[in-house]
Design goal:
The protein is mostly helical and 83 residues long. It is 70% helix and 0% strand.
Length: 83
């Protein structure tokens, strides 16, 4: 079993967690863990999106990036079956 800890949240947040747990039939700790994991993934994708937009704005860097992608295009065509 994983070790748990206590955090402070507002009454509104606690109410929302309890409601989600009640409706899903899952423990509040699972509801919170899933919500944090979803937010972590969303944040990671948002950061990647922002980085890609910056890359696209920089013509020199984006050109270099696309040239490198072009060079790598056929590298997996080695005739071996994928596992």
């Amino acid at each position: 079993m994983k070790i748990s800890t206590t955090i402070r949240v507002s009454e509104d947040t606690k109410g929302a967690i309890d409601e989600l747990a009640r409706h899903s039939g899952r423990p509040a700790i699972e509801v919170v863990a899933e919500a944090v994991e979803r937010y972590r993934r969303e944040s990671l994708l948002d950061q990647a999106d922002k980085a890609y937009l910056l890359l696209r704005k920089d013509k020199k860097m984006s050109g270099s990036y696309y040239r490198e992608l072009k060079e790598l295009e056929g590298t997996l065509e080695d005739g071996l079956d994928e596992p």
